[in-house]
Specification:
This protein is α/β, with parallel strands linked by helices. 32% of the residues lie in helices and 31% in strands. It has 9 helices and 14 strands. Strands 10-9-8-11-12-14-13 form a 7-stranded mixed β-sheet, sandwiched between helices. It has a 4-stranded antiparallel β-sheet with strand order 2-3-1-4, with no helix packed on it. Helix 7 packs parallel to helix 8. 38% of the residues are buried.
Length: 273
């Protein structure tokens, strides 16, 4: 099997480009600084994939190079690590036995977002212990692999709704929930968070690791879903967007409780003012 590495630099439309890459045959995409990287085999039409990328971002810079003939089913695992985030650890199955099972979330890396490899996931998990109470009802919006929903359950939540609109992520989320022994507390629900959040309300805590434009649109829905003493933890926000987001939060009647920053990403815990 012949493999090719594609490195795609995109000045904008990053989320749309990632979606186009998956639609054109990419089985995985990871971020490396300002580039998106994927490895594809000979069954993928590379020209079509590049065309799909440029349809979303005409300024995209694409470079490609052949990859050595190796067993990628094992090789890719070397790039997936375990992350000790204080109260909890996020680890793939082949590294999980190195840590205390009582605080380890085991996530099988698949196409669903949320393996612990991304700073936005880590930011939410670092903030979470400060704001979750035993018995809380929680909603995880854009749940992906359900890693944040699982974290909430392991930290004491009694009921968690893991809401995800990507059909392809649902099976992975359900498998991760079962693997971590929290199926009695976490329910994976497929659909649009804006429509489903009011149906699972009231909740005391909302987790949302989504791009900033979607977060802004969801703020009124989140506000209506929270209990009077409720909080929300937002992530998926670029550090460069921090000041703009703080202004939006202030004007929308929210106050900042805590912040987390890693690399180019910013996460924030908020409550109504």
């Amino acid at each position: 099997m012949t493999w090719t590495s594609l490195r795609i630099r995109v000045p904008d439309a990053r989320e749309a480009v990632i979606a186009a890459m998956f639609a054109a045959g990419a089985q995985g995409v990871h971020e490396d600084a300002d580039a998106l990287v994927t490895h594809v085999d000979e069954t993928v039409d590379i020209a079509a994939l590049v065309a799909a990328v440029r349809a979303e971002c005409p300024a995209a810079e694409v470079t490609q190079a052949p990859l050595p003939d190796v067993d990628w089913s094992e090789q890719w695992k070397q790039g997936v690590g375990a992350h000790d985030l204080g109260a909890l650890v996020v680890a793939p199955p082949w590294l999980a036995d190195r840590f205390d099972p009582a605080r380890t979330i085991v996530i099988e890396p698949e196409m669903a977002f949320g393996t612990g490899e991304h700073a936005t996931t880590r930011g939410v998990i670092r903030l979470l212990p400060q704001f979750i109470h035993p018995g809380d009802r929680v909603a995880d919006l854009g749940a992906g692999s359900a890693v944040l929903a699982i974290a909430a359950a392991m930290l004491g939540a009694s009921r968690v709704a893991a809401i995800e609109m990507d059909h392809d992520a649902i099976a992975n989320a359900e498998s991760n929930v079962a693997r971590n022994g929290v199926a009695d507390r976490v329910t994976v629900i497929e659909g649009d968070a804006a429509q489903l959040l009011p149906l699972v309300a009231p909740v005391r805590l909302v987790l949302a690791n989504i791009i900033s434009s979607v977060l802004v649109a969801l703020l009124p829905v989140i506000e209506q879903a929270l209990t009077p003493d409720g909080h929300a933890i937002l992530s998926g926000i670029l550090a460069a967007e921090r000041d703009e987001m703080l202004d939006v939060l202030r004007r929308s009647g929210w106050r900042v409780l805590a912040e987390d920053a890693e690399d180019i990403w910013w996460s924030v815990a908020i409550a109504r003012a």
